[in-house]
Design goal:
Oligomer: single chain
Number of domains: 1
Structural class: mainly alpha
Low-confidence stretches: 1-6, 162-166
Number of helices: 8
Radius of gyration: 20 Å
Strand content: under 5%
């Protein structure tokens, strides 16, 4: 399947990372999922050690996985000075709490997608006709979704066009669409996440009337990496 290798974590490690994450520790959220040193075992290192099923995120949501990763990378920036902006510990705590909630809601949305398409019941190693039918149904869904993506002109090769590739690559990934199970929850989660960050900034640094408040809100809105439309 012609998808980009945009994810580097499994669903089990996402779940465990959420459960273990304590916003009070004042650290950006990370998904701990390491490569298995045993090349004969497709599981990640943590799942192999814990004897857990190592499930990657659904192919039909790799664009949403990419977006979650972009948001997590964006939030990590609040722990360093961005230009001349410094964010205090109270603001970062709100970011931590909002990030954990965002990841929980992504997990719920992914499970809704998985259940709707019967992915939770699929055993990819089972050659039975029933399993083949479920797998074929999902593959047809993926093919139809790819065919429905708007045409993107492939950027020219070369370092000078790197930004074009950064825009082109994520747009090729499949995302939940309006009406899909999980779409509304994930869409609302991203919007509410950004709203919470903005409200906390206003509470601590002022609104657009003040210079510092306006400067910070402009940074938050202008640098947020995901399109909420």
């Amino acid at each position: 399947m012609d998808e980009l290798p945009s994810r580097n974590w499994c669903l089990s490690c996402l779940h465990i990372s959420i459960a273990n994450y304590d916003p009070q520790q004042d650290e950006p959220f990370q998904i701990y999922c390491a490569v298995n040193e045993d090349t004969n075992d497709p599981s990640c290192g943590q799942c192999a050690d814990r004897k857990l099923t190592c499930e990657p995120p659904s192919l039909g949501m790799l664009g949403d996985v990419y977006d979650l990763g972009a948001i997590l990378e964006w939030t990590a920036g609040f722990w360093s000075r961005c230009g001349n902006l410094y964010w205090n510990s109270t603001f970062r705590l709100a970011v931590c709490e909002a990030t954990k909630e965002l990841c929980l809601r992504f997990e719920h949305a992914e499970m809704s997608h998985r259940r709707y398409h019967m992915l939770t019941a699929i055993d990819w190693e089972d050659p039975s006709e029933e399993q083949d039918a479920d797998i074929d149904n999902y593959r047809r869904f993926l093919v139809e979704r790819r065919a429905s993506l708007h045409h993107l002109t492939t950027p020219l090769n070369g370092i000078i066009n790197r930004q074009d590739w950064l825009t082109y690559n994520p747009e090729r990934l499949l995302r939940l669409w309006r009406g899909d199970p999980g779409f509304l929850e994930w869409s609302e989660a991203k919007t509410e996440f950004l709203d919470r960050i903005q409200r906390e900034s206003i509470s601590l640094y002022g609104c657009e009337v003040s210079y510092h408040g306006r400067q910070r809100l402009s940074f938050i809105e202008g640098s947020f990496p995901v399109n909420l439309q």
